[in-house]
Design goal:
alpha/beta; Spore Coat Polysaccharide Biosynthesis Protein SpsA, Chain A; 10 helices; 9 strands; transmembrane; glycosyltransferase; membrane; transmembrane helix
Length: about 325
C-alpha cells in the first residue's frame, strides 16, 4: 500500500502542533490513506518540541525531527524531505493555513500519474497593497528564472518519490524549495486552494524578514541582480555620453558651463551606482563562500518516531 508523507516545518508553533496532527489524522484516515507526519522543529524557542513528542505518543505515524538550532524554513523543508519515507511526499505549513482536505485531491492527482501537484492560491488573502505588489515583483523575477508561472505559487505541494530524490540529489547549500520543485520538471498539475486564517499564534514573517527571504532566494536561484548591475552600468554610461556630447557642443560654441552642481550630482549618481553594484556582487561572493565551505544545511540533534528515539537512524544532510 502506498504511503503519503506530510512534511510540516514548525517554528514556535506550540499552540498548533497538536491540533494540526489531529486534523491530518482525521482527514487522511477518513480517506483511507496510509500516512506519515514528519514534523521538523526548527529550533523553536517555545514548547513546540514537547508538543511534537506528546503528539507522537498518541500517533505512531508521527516522526519528530529536532534541529540543534534555528536553521530556517528552507532547511526544515529539506530535512523533512530527507527523513520522509513515503511513496508520495507533501509539504504544508504547520498552522493549517493550507487546508488539510486539499491533500486528498492532491493524492488522487498523484494516483492518476502526476508527479508534482502544485497548490495554487485562489487569492493572496488579506494582505496589504505593498505586500501584494512586492510579492508580485518577487514572483515575476522567479517566474522568468524558472520559466514557470509562480505568481500564486506556495510551498503547499505533493511530489512523487522520484521528484523528492531528484531535489535531494542537488548539492548546493542555498536552495529555494518553491522554485526548485518547479525547476526539476516532471509531469505537473495544479490544485487551487483557499488560504485559511491562522487559528492561533502569530505569523513568523515580518516585512523585513520577507524582504530578506525574497532577496536571498533570488540570489540563490538566479543571476538576475547581476544583470541589473550590467543594465545600471549601461544606463550610467549612456548618461555620461550624453553629458560629454552636450559639454563638447557648449565648449565649441564658446559658452562656458558653471557645471559645479552637475558635477556633484554626477559624482553622487555614479558613486551610488558603484556602491550598489559592489553590494550585489559582494552578496553573490558571500553565497559562493558559503557554498565552498560545504557546511550542512542543518544539524539534527534528535529524531523520534512515535514515542521511540531513533536518532541513530537519522539521514544526515550531505
Amino acid at each position: 500500500m502506498s504511503i503519503l508523507s506530510v512534511v510540516l516545518p514548525a517554528y514556535n508553533e506550540e499552540q498548533m502542533v497538536g491540533k494540526t496532527c489531529r486534523v491530518l489524522h482525521e482527514v487522511l484516515s477518513g480517506a483511507g490513506i496510509s500516512y506519515e507526519l514528519v514534523l521538523v522543529n526548527d529550533g523553536s524557542k517555545d514548547n513546540t518540541w514537547n508538543e511534537i513528542l506528546k503528539a507522537g505518543e498518541k500517533d505512531p505515524n508521527i516522526l519528530g525531527v529536532h534541529f540543534s538550532r534555528n536553521f530556517g524554513k528552507e532547511a526544515a523543508v529539506f530535512a523533512g524531505l530527507a527523513q520522509a519515507s513515503g511513496d508520495a511526499v507533501a509539504v504544508m505549513d504547520c498552522d493549517l493555513q493550507h487546508p488539510a482536505e486539499t491533500l486528498i485531491e492532491m493524492y488522487q492527482k498523484w494516483k492518476e500519474g502526476y508527479e508534482v501537484i502544485e497548490g495554487v492560491k485562489k487569492s493572496r488573502g488579506e494582505e496589504s497593497f505593498l505586500h501584494k505588489e512586492s510579492a508580485g515583483f518577487f514572483y515575476g523575477i522567479m517566474s522568468k528564472a524558472t520559466k514557470v508561472d509562480m505568481q500564486n505559487a506556495s510551498d503547499f505541494k505533493m511530489m512523487d518519490r522520484k521528484v523528492v530524490n531528484s531535489i535531494l540529489s542537488l548539492t548546493e547549500r542555498n536552495m529555494f524549495f518553491r522554485a526548485t520543485s518547479s525547476w526539476v520538471g516532471y509531469k505537473t498539475t495544479y490544485v487551487e486552494f483557499e488560504v485559511h486564517e491562522r487559528e492561533a499564534g502569530e505569523s513568523k514573517w515580518s516585512t523585513w524578514s520577507l524582504i530578506k527571504y525574497a532577496f536571498t532566494n533570488i540570489v540563490a536561484f538566479t543571476t538576475a541582480p547581476l544583470q541589473f548591475v550590467t543594465v545600471g552600468g549601461g544606463i550610467c554610461f549612456g548618461c555620461s555620453l550624453i553629458m560629454i556630447i552636450y559639454s563638447l557642443i557648449q565648449y565649441f560654441r564658446g559658452q562656458a558651463i558653471e557645471g559645479y552642481t552637475t558635477t556633484i550630482l554626477l559624482l553622487l549618481l555614479i558613486g551610488s551606482a558603484i556602491m550598489l553594484s559592489l553590494g550585489v556582487i559582494g552578496y553573490y561572493l558571500a553565497k559562493i563562500y558559503e557554498e565552498v565551505k560545504h557546511r550542512p544545511r542543518y544539524i539534527v540533534s534528535q529524531i523520534v518516531r512515535g514515542n521511540k528515539d531513533v536518532t541513530g537512524s537519522v539521514r544526515h544532510d550531505v
